[in-house]
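Prompt: For my understanding, could you write out one protein's sequence and backbone structure tokens?
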Amino acid sequence: MAPNNPIQIMTSRPTQADVELVKHDLKVSGYRPIELIVDQYREECLNTPDEDDKYTETVREFIAAVIPYAWRIESICLRLRTVAPIDELVMIPAEQLQQVEKATFDLTWRQEVTQGIWRNFLQSPAIRSVKFYSGSPATFPHIPSLSRLHELEFASSKPISEVLCCLQNAPNLHTLRTYWISEDDGDLAKSGVLVELPHLQILNVRAVKPWLLTNRLGHLSSLRSLEILQDLPSDSGLVLQSVCDLLERSTGCQLESLHLIFQNLKDDDVICTIMDHALSACSNLTELILEVSFSHGYMTEAIVAKLTATGNEAIFPKLRVLSLGYCKLEDGYIYEMITSRQSSQSPLELLTLQLDKSCSERYRAELGRVLTDTGLNVVPSFI
């Protein structure tokens, strides 16, 4: 094994034997970088009862075994459901954490501890990736190391103005994923100032009002993947218009993947419009996901007709993976779209469909016949 290959130190429910094993492995591992993972959200932990004192003490011993080797930590992930005794991590001098490249935190308790951990680990000159889901420091938008980040993923209930301030200080981001942005639009969001992220390639926004963020992003010339998830029923027209505007501002980007997931869809003309607007930015689109909650709407004939080929010509000519949420087979337009694209110069390779479970056996059999004729790989799910 290469001497610089990281050694992974991982636990969710450590035993005393695990503590002894970690002590041995670190002692004999030379100068190899360390990946430290304490993740109480792993599947095997989710249904466990509250931890007793013995378990808490074992977690403390596990972490304490790593601290003498803190200068080797390259990646740290702390996702804690309980008040684990990690105070010792706060006491590590920042100069011993100069190798930390990746930091993931989900800490919901003891603000003085979480603030100290943030302060220590995010000041590393090597930091490139930060993910946090709770417990972020009040000063996060102004941390100097933001300018070094290539990847940022966070869940936040802070006003959108604070989120935008954070992004203004992180101009080198390649990947941005956000969840549960507050509905408070804040002063900066109203100011008309656009945040420029010229290196951003992947943008995922999950929010009740995702347009509060997308409307404030400038020219994303490097964008390759865009995902917008409307978290609760709200105005899908505003969501779609903000995506249209963002793509128009991002001239020159070569989008390869577009995911639009709605809780409701009131106007199919809007989604048809976005496909028209997206053409210039999506000539290289290979993956398209359009989904809507089946209780609030479905993929209408007008939407699917946009994806139907005419002769050898089809919208998004490089499209190979298509997912459509909640379709009505009885209307027949799904078959037309499939057969037209498969006989054109823009055939699909994978099609995922959400179908009404009440659709008749006749139409299910018809879908099977179409698949046999075209050879397309279709993954149906009945809802």
Remarks:
- The first helix runs from residue 16 to 28.
- The longest strand covers residues 73-79.
- Residues 131 and 283 are 32 Å apart (CA to CA).
- The chain has a mean pLDDT of 80.
